[in-house]
Each structure stands twice: as structure tokens, then as C-alpha cells.
Write a structure and sequence with these properties.
The protein has 539 residues and is of the alpha/beta class. Among the domains are: 127 residues, Rossmann fold, CATH 3.40.50; 99 residues, GMP Synthetase, Chain A, domain 3 (2-Layer Sandwich), CATH 3.30.300. The protein has a 9-stranded mixed sheet with strand order 2-1-13-12-14-15-16-17-18, sandwiched between helices. Bound molecules: 5'-O-[(R)-(benzoyloxy)(hydroxy)phosphoryl]adenosine (OOB). 5'-O-[(R)-(benzoyloxy)(hydroxy)phosphoryl]adenosine binds next to helix 8, strand 16, strand 21 and strand 22.
Length: 539
């Protein structure tokens, strides 16, 4: 086996841990590209992916990935080069991902909702050599955005477009005879995921072939995927949950069929469930609620559905209890994070656990600690912050040396920022969080980032964003503003943020003008008190 050439800015596992994970079989030394190859050899004619009217067999997906890999290589894209992938749920997402995995180039997965601010930041941070986007998606033209990225990210050499490329290169034109490629080592970084919850600007999470192969294969096992699985990708596949928990990659690993939905709306998804006889899918809680409501009036045949995974934000027990009676399938709760750790309720768990907990860790070697503010472990059953290390949990964010000093404990545990308690069964209940993120029904709003953008508005003297409870989303964002001069309106502030090119889910749902902020003894804004004041209607 070749020795992995470590990516600059990547913190790997200490050798002692890597050796243990190999020895215990978590890291069997496979690459993501080889998983597809294996299935393509075993069942070449089986349908791998359905996207609208297009159906690609395993052979076809495998061959497209090979041809595209050589095409990308011929363009000058080399192993360890980063490629910013900004694609919705289209079949090209899969062909491109496997092409990059096989070449050893590293996809950086941006979410479809991301706009100029996020995309330029990601391109610069990763020094991406290429940006891949659709021509238009849901009314948004990506080509003007591509012009901005190219002007502002000096390392960017190529713009590849799915569809009409304008002055750029069509992804479809990168087609070459399959041939030998350098290829990655299993210990190499395979992809970079975006973190939902850190301070300051968004961070990137390196995932290796070794760790992601475990992530998706063990998830596929816990979820019971096999060759008869028809997985509907309703959430954007660039997110870890529908990508690999077990998601589209876990489905392909298991030899099943991936069905891509353009949106998670019941209109699109129910039609596909009926037409493709979908057996499993994954949603965030607000969408689960929407599907429950839609199922009451829809005449779509959902009887093929066997399992609905729900995760990304806390699912209320009363919503959880409606899933099996209304949709006629089992529920699995998933508490996961792009940083690694995944918790699942299991198929044979009693209803009590499935409805009231967020599941237990995937791996026996996931080491969990639940600690108080001084990093001391709380008594069994007590609530505290979850710290974790294990065979698929990162040891450091990519190129974030300073942040990494506080995001991890000295012995390598990742500080999740989530407040949990653990039942004697090992199952976790998520009780809250201490990180400054608003979880808007699964969409993570990085508070500090949005505050900084609001501070650049001339009429904003100071701002603090807090979460306010919401029946549908769990919580919404409220920006508390101390005005400079004439108070700005919500429309003005949101126009300012949109003008900066910020993803729409980050725009404050509500704006409140205040004269001052409550402060802690140390002089920091007391957000807990501020949120209580807002919720109580007191200014
Ligand atoms: C998933 O990943 P991310 O990276 O977008 O967000 C992770 C954070 C967690 O730290 C936690 O704060 C929250 O999202 N979260 C949940 C939850 N699942 C995630 N909070 C309460 N209950 C749950 N079930 O969101 C993600 C990644 C893989 C699988 C599933 C979700």
C-alpha cells in the first residue's frame, strides 16, 4: 500500500488510534471509488440512480465516473486539488463525486442554498481549482455567481457547468477514454464537508476514505439497506445526512437504487415514492411535519415506504408518534453531525426509545464524555456538553489551527456544543446546546457570521441574534438591533444581507430594536436573558 500523502492543513488521528481502528476493522483500507466499482462488477445492469427521466445502471454510473475522472485529470486537476461542488440533486453529482474520489481530488460540498458570500469564502479557504455548478437551479442563475467567484478566488482555474455553460466549460464535455489514474490511499482526505456550527466564518471538515467508508457502510447496516433498497434523496445530497448516513453513498454501497428528488416538497417526493416504489428516505423535523400534513389529503400511494429517518434537529415526541400511523413506515431518529459522530435509534428498539431519544452511537469505539462547564464528567444521567472522539470523528478542522485549539480537548475529543443526557441503555437525549448557532429546523444559522454582516449596515450600531421558539421550525432567528440614528426596517436589513450574497436561510426571521443588551458579569451579551426578554415581549 502506498503511504498517504497528507493534505496540508489536515489533522489526522494519532498513529496509536489509527492502528486500533484498522485492527478492529473500522478501516478496512478501501477507497470510496472502489465501493462503486465492486457493485458495478456484481450487478452492472441494476439501476443505480434515477433522476427525472434518466436512469443510469451501475455500469453506466461507474463508466461515467471513470471517463470524467480522466477528463478532469486531462484538464490539469490533480490528486489533492480541491473542487468546489455546488450542485443540487442531479445524477451528475454522483458521477462527479466518484470521478473526484477516484482521481484523489477533493470535493468541497457547498449547499444549494449558498450564495456569493459562502461560495467565495469556501473557494478561498479551500483554494479550490474548480467550481462546478448547474446553469440555473430553481430560478437562480449560477453563471453570474461563477464570474464573481473566478474574480475573487485567485486559485480558481476552471468553471464547469451542468447544462448551458455560457463562456465556461460544460461538464458533459469532459469525457475521455478511461485510463490509469494516480488514485488515492485510503488514509487520504476524500472530501471536505461544511460545518454547521462553529464560531466566526464557516469551517471545513476533512473526511478520509477510511473514515467515510466506515460512516456510510455502518450506517447502511444499521438502517438495513440492501440491493432492494430504493432510497429517495429529498434533502440536498451535499449534506452529510442524505449523502452518507447512509444516504446516497450508503445506498450505492449496498447495491440499491438512488432516486433523486429536485426538492423535498410532498408534491415532488410523493410522486417519486409512488412511481419508484421508494423504501427509505431521510428528512429534517419541519419537513416530516409537512409530509404528515400532506399525507392526510394526498392520494399518492406511499405503501412502499418502510423507513423514515428524521434528524438534523430535535424531533418532538408527539410528531414522532404520528409518523408510523400516518405514513405507514417505521421511524428512525438520527442525531448526527458533519464532524463525524452519528447516533441512531435501532430497528428493534422499543417504541419508547424510538419516540423519545435521538439514538445511540454507531460505533463501539465512539468514546463519549458528557461534561460540565469545567470539563468534568457529570453524574450518570446528568445533562452536560457532549465531547466525542472515534473512528469517524474529525481531529481538527481544515486549515483552522487557532480555532482547533479550543474546538478540541487536549486528548483529542471534539467539543460538540450539544447538551445531552445519556440513558442507561446508551441512548442520548438532546437537551439543548451551548454553541452559538440557531438550528432553524435543521438549517444551521452561524450566528456570529450573520451578526458581523449586519454590523456592516450603517444604521446598525450593535446586534445580537438569538433563537426564539417556533412550532414548525423548532426555532427562528431574531436579530436584536441597537440602531445608529433612524432604526432600520427588517426589509432594509434583509436586502443588505441578500445584497452581500448570503444564503436565504440565514436572514433573520424577526428584527427587534433594543436600547441595550443585558450583559453577563464578564460584560458579554447575555443571550439567554435577551432571548427570554424577546420571548416575553419585554423590550
Ligand atoms: C446534521 O449535521 P450538521 O453538521 O448539519 O449539524 C449537526 C448539529 C448537531 O451538533 C446538533 O446540534 C444538531 O445538528 N442535530 C440535532 C439532531 N441531529 C443533529 N439536534 C437534535 N436532534 C437531532 N436528531 O444535522 C446531521 C448529520 C448527519 C445525520 C443527521 C444529521
Amino acid at each position: 500500500m502506498r503511504k498517504a500523502v497528507m493534505l496540508d492543513g489536515f489533522t489526522g488521528w494519532p498513529e496509536e488510534f489509527a492502528a486500533r481502528y484498522r485492527e478492529r476493522g473500522y478501516w478496512p483500507g478501501r477507497t470510496l471509488g472502489s465501493l462503486l466499482r465492486e457493485q458495478a462488477r456484481m450487478r452492472p445492469a441494476h439501476t443505480a440512480v434515477v433522476d427525472g427521466d434518466r436512469r443510469w445502471s451501475y455500469h453506466e454510473l461507474d463508466e461515467r465516473a471513470d471517463r470524467l475522472a480522466v477528463g478532469l485529470h486531462a484538464l490539469g486537476i490533480a490528486p489533492r486539488d480541491r473542487v468546489l461542488v455546488h450542485l443540487p440533486n442531479v445524477a451528475e453529482f454522483l458521477a462527479l463525486s466518484f470521478a473526484l474520489f477516484r482521481l484523489g481530488a477533493i470535493p468541497v460540498y457547498a449547499l444549494p442554498a449558498h450564495r456569493e458570500t459562502e461560495i467565495v469564502h469556501l473557494a478561498r479557504l479551500s483554494e479550490a481549482v474548480a467550481y462546478v455548478a448547474p446553469d440555473t437551479h430553481l430560478g437562480f442563475d449560477h453563471r453570474p455567481l461563477a464570474r464573481i467567484v473566478r474574480a475573487q478566488a485567485p486559485a480558481l482555474r476552471h468553471v464547469l457547468i451542468v447544462g448551458d455553460p455560457a463562456e465556461f466549460t460544460a461538464l458533459a464535455d469532459l469525457d475521455a477514454e478511461p485510463g490509469p489514474l494516480p488514485g488515492p490511499d485510503p488514509a487520504d482526505v476524500a472530501l471536505l464537508l461544511l460545518s454547521g456550527g462553529t464560531t466566526g466564518v464557516p469551517k471545513l471538515i476533512p473526511r478520509t476514505h477510511d473514515d467515510y467508508v466506515y460512516n456510510l457502510s455502518a450506517s447502511a447496516e444499521v438502517t438495513g439497506l440492501d440491493t432492494g433498497t430504493r432510497y429517495l434523496a429529498a434533502l440536498p445530497v451535499a449534506h452529510n445526512f442524505p449523502l452518507a448516513c447512509p444516504g446516497v453513498l450508503g445506498t450505492l454501497y449496498a447495491g440499491g437504487t438512488v432516486v433523486l428528488s429536485p426538492t423535498p416538497s410532498p408534491d415532488d417526493a410523493f410522486r417519486l415514492i409512488e412511481r419508484e416504489r421508494v423504501t427509505v428516505t431521510a428528512l429534517v423535523p419541519p419537513l416530516a411535519l409537512l409530509w404528515l400534513e400532506a399525507a392526510d389529503w394526498s392520494d399518492a400511494d406511499l405503501s412502499s415506504l418502510q423507513l423514515l429517518q428524521v434528524g438534523g434537529a430535535r424531533l418532538k415526541p408527539d410528531t414522532a408518534a404520528r409518523i408510523t400511523p400516518t405514513l405507514g413506515c417505521r421511524l428512525q431518529q438520527v442525531f448526527g453531525m458533519a464532524e463525524g459522530l452519528l447516533n441512531f435509534t435501532r430497528q428493534d428498539d422499543p417504541e419508547e426509545l424510538v419516540l423519545h431519544t435521538q439514538g445511540r452511537p454507531l460505533a463501539a469505539d465512539d468514546e463519549l464524555r458528557i461534561v460540565d462547564a469545567d470539563d468534568h464528567e457529570v453524574a450518570p444521567g446528568g445533562v452536560g456538553e457532549l465531547h466525542v472522539r472515534g473512528p469517524y470523528t474529525l481531529r481538527g478542522y481544515y486549515r483552522a489551527e487557532v480555532h482547533n485549539r479550543t474546538a478540541f480537548t487536549p486528548d483529542g475529543y471534539y467539543r460538540t456544543g450539544d447538551l445531552v443526557r445519556q440513558l442507561p441503555s446508551g441512548d442520548l437525549v438532546v437537551e439543548g446546546r451551548i454553541k452559538d448557532v440557531i438550528n432553524r429546523g435543521g438549517d444551521k444559522v452561524p450566528v456570529e457570521e450573520v451578526e458581523n454582516h449586519l454590523l456592516s449596515h450603517p444604521a446598525v450600531h450593535d446586534v445580537a441574534i438569538v433563537g426564539i421558539p417556533d412550532d414548525t421550525l423548532g426555532e427562528r432567528s431574531c436579530a436584536c438591533v441597537i440602531a445608529r440614528g433612524t432604526p432600520p426596517t427588517r426589509a432594509e436589513l434583509n436586502a443588505h444581507l441578500t445584497g452581500l450574497g448570503l444564503a436565504a436561510f440565514k436572514l433573520p426571521d424577526r428584527i427587534e430594536m433594543v436600547d441595550s443588551f443585558p450583559r453577563t458579569a464578564l460584560g458579554k451579551v447575555n443571550k439567554r436573558e435577551l432571548a427570554a426578554l424577546i420571548a416575553g415581549g419585554v423590550r
